[in-house]
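SEQUENCE WITH STRUCTURE:
===
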Amino acid sequence: MAQRTASEPITIRTAKVAEIDALANAMDRSRNYIVNQAIERYLEANAWQMERIEEGIAASREGKVVPADEVFAGIAARHGWTR
């Protein structure tokens, strides 16, 4: 027998339910699948961003920074822009 994972009820704004249902119908998936995929991707993206922010803060504290003017000049040079 398959073991069920724990679940937790959540509240979704009514207008979003229609959007979720439209997407679920278009993808031939359940509302539950769409919501769980969205939550999973949101959490992954935010975890990635938080890791990068923490790495940046640590680098800054260690003095491993590049002045903004150098960064902007490098971007401009790469794209052939003049500053």
Observations:
- The mean pLDDT is 93.
